């Protein structure tokens, strides 16, 4: 007889494992199914984010930044490092350790919260009285469960170029990009978005000659134009070669690497020879293998599960969150949806505000933003005031030796409510949190301007940008 649960979560990525834990905290009997495993064959919950995305990429970004700082910038602080050597194998091993620690942490949280974890592949079997039957197949013996409520959180996978599948040796997804065994002399990336810029930054710092080819005519088109220009200047200075408006043609594999034919923004034929190629042109929802047709679960033209504003599907008692549904493919967005769904199942009022979801690029300089950009406000005809403050005039940034970039604040011209905050510069990923909190509480720029910020701190740049909205910045 199939064991019954109040909630069954399919997928243990950021959306799934958090949903399972929150549902258990609310007194529900919960099972979570996930088939991810590490190189040793052990369960590795955490999804793409923990295993081949957010966590390992940040580990390598940190290691590669330390390497570059030691080799190029420590001397400015009076630190003579001599000849800096890199041990790539140890760097990758540290990254793997960080990933494993996160895997083990999730398993510990399941145990602590009495969530039953099943290592295997979860799929729908049929609708039954009181819920849905789910089959779990994997290393262990196959079994079936019945859940009164089902939460699908199966995430997404890297999109391949048509006709050029990933082999994870020469043509790499984000997975292979994190496991390159030797620094390539020439590295190509297709796509100059978040993943492309972060992966390109890692391998450039370690010594690769990096070229990014982007189909869009503008650099970081979803970022505020002024912030994107600042970031582009920094990346150009670092040696990242970025070409926009590119159309990729044939990709040929030879003895010495890959030969890419493409046309540039002027329509002229160009070619690029690389040792390895990272493809980062977007991601596709993971719905294959879920057997959605068995229960009539509705998918859209992209293969994503169709949900309403509260993450309900067309099937009673079936919910979906994260990358497998509409909206930005961000780990923290998935987490918020997972918590909200668990609370809705328990009869509470779950909350997700899509207007205050922060975005971050963990490059150097870091780029972070929340809310609308200046170009969006202009397009929508919204009267606004803008204020900005450069890190060049911030005492903490000077002490760090990291003065590039700025904080920019946009506020409603009539009400002064903050409509967007955009940062390029040191620790932007941390600074953006203040803006998210302020916008969630519908704060005005004057509210931030009147709050005492520690001195010296990078956060003072946010206060000064708020003051600049009213043209009364004190230090610039």
TrEMBL record:
Pfam families tied to this protein: Pyr_redox_2 (PF07992), Pyr_redox_dim (PF02852)
Cofactor(s) needed by this chain: FAD
Cellular localisation: Cytoplasm
Molecular function via GO: dihydrolipoyl dehydrogenase (NADH) activity
Keyword RNA-binding attributed: no
KW Membrane (keyword) present: no
Domain of life: Bacteria
Boundaries of every FAD/NAD(P)-binding domain copy: 5-338
Keywords, in A-Z order: Cytoplasm, FAD, Flavoprotein, NAD, Oxidoreductase, Redox-active center
Reaction catalysed by this enzyme: N(6)-[(R)-dihydrolipoyl]-L-lysyl-[protein] + NAD(+) = N(6)-[(R)-lipoyl]-L-lysyl-[protein] + NADH + H(+)
Coarse class of the protein's main subcellular location: cytoplasm
Cofactor: binding comment: Binds 1 FAD per subunit.
Enzyme Commission designation: 1.8.1.4
Ranges of residues in domain Pyridine nucleotide-disulphide oxidoreductase dimerisation: 357-466
Enzyme class, first EC level, given as a word: oxidoreductase
Note: The active site is a redox-active disulfide bond.
Family named by the database record: Belongs to the class-I pyridine nucleotide-disulfide oxidoreductase family.
Record-given protein name: Dihydrolipoyl dehydrogenase
UniProt lineage: Bacteria, Pseudomonadati, Pseudomonadota, Betaproteobacteria, Burkholderiales
Gene responsible for this protein: lpdA
